[in-house]
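Much of our argument rests on the idea that a fold can be written as discrete symbols. In the encoding step, the backbone of a single protein was reduced to a row of integers, each denoting a local shape. We regard such an encoding as a compact summary of how the chain folds. The record that follows shows the chain in one-letter code together with its fold in token form:
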Amino acid sequence: EEGAPGRRGERERSEEGAAAADRGPGAAFHMFVLMEDLLDKLKLLSYEEEVLRRHNMRPLSRHYFALPTNPGEQFFMFCTLAAWLITKAGRPFEQPQEYDDPNAVISNVLSELRSF
């Protein structure tokens, strides 16, 4: 039945599985390819010297953002990179701190990106 509890969720999951199958067998690995491309681009922009050394951070792995390992650390790294890229694009942007309100940080990043 359409309105039976549990049935709808099962149908949605099977539709999601069918959609993933339609994209092909490599779709599950696409996020890893994107992360490797991102890392290559960051290296071309000298993120190792300009971000990692300045903030005493470890280099990103090839799959750093593709696998959820430590969401707090990954979020802070994302915000640090976003702030650096915005500054590199010629806009002043204050480097977020590790314990800043995540909603406020993301709001500031999105606001700055919208102004581009």
About this structure: The first helix runs from residue 7 to 22.
